[in-house]
From TrEMBL:
Keywords: Membrane, Transmembrane, Transmembrane helix. It holds the Pfam family DUF308. The chain crosses the membrane at residues 7-28, 34-53, 65-84, 90-107, 119-137, 143-166. It comes from Amycolatopsis samaneae. This is HdeD family acid-resistance protein. PANTHER family: PROTEIN HDED.
């Protein structure tokens, strides 16, 4: 698979898993913190692996590697300690969202010279940062509100990742 094909596939994987997480969080907002932690843990690990699996020729910077490792660590910690409190889970999700959001904004700025549609990656980054800040401001809002906020975020983020994958796919087809 070519570098751009791999990048498209990884964006699709990130988008699909984000949408699945979003649907679960919205369909069952009353799930326990334990179940939400489990679903988030798996999502964060898959997202982190996808970030680390970017092709070597891609614009792969320390920030992307850091965000990937942070996602995997956040996922593992969440799965190892599933009885984590709602507040701790909220702060973990908040930190993860802010860090990955900043990295996505940075990547979008770097990629603007090479691809069209980079605004979608930047938008996903802004959305991530906003979610993280909202969680920091109101970590006491409870698991139900966090589940709904995270579900809405994940759905929008997943759709944006799929749009970006489509844009990258179209871009790679017109340059060949």
């Amino acid at each position: 698979m070519s570098g751009s094909g791999t990048a498209v596939a990884l964006l699709v994987i990130r988008g699909v898993f984000a949408i699945l997480f979003g649907v679960v969080a919205l369909v069952w907002p009353g799930v326990t913190v334990l179940a939400l932690a489990f679903v988030f843990g798996i999502y964060a690990i898959v997202d982190g692996i996808a970030l680390l699996a970017e092709p070597k020729g891609a614009e792969r910077r320390w920030g992307t590697i850091f965000a990937g490792v942070l996602g995997i660590l956040a996922g593992i910690l969440t799965l190892v300690w599933p009885a984590i409190t709602a507040l701790t889970l909220a702060l973990l999700v908040g930190i993860w969202a802010v860090v990955t959001g900043i990295m996505e904004i940075s990547t979008a700025i770097r990629l603007r010279k090479w691809i069209r549609g980079e605004v979608f990656l930047g938008l996903a980054g802004v959305l991530s940062v906003v979610l993280g800040v909202l969680i920091f401001v109101r970590p006491d809002a409870g698991a139900l509100v966090i589940a709904v906020m995270a579900g809405i975020y994940a759905l929008i983020f997943g759709i944006i990742m799929l749009i970006l994958a489509f844009q990258l796919y179209r871009s790679s087809r017109t340059t060949v």
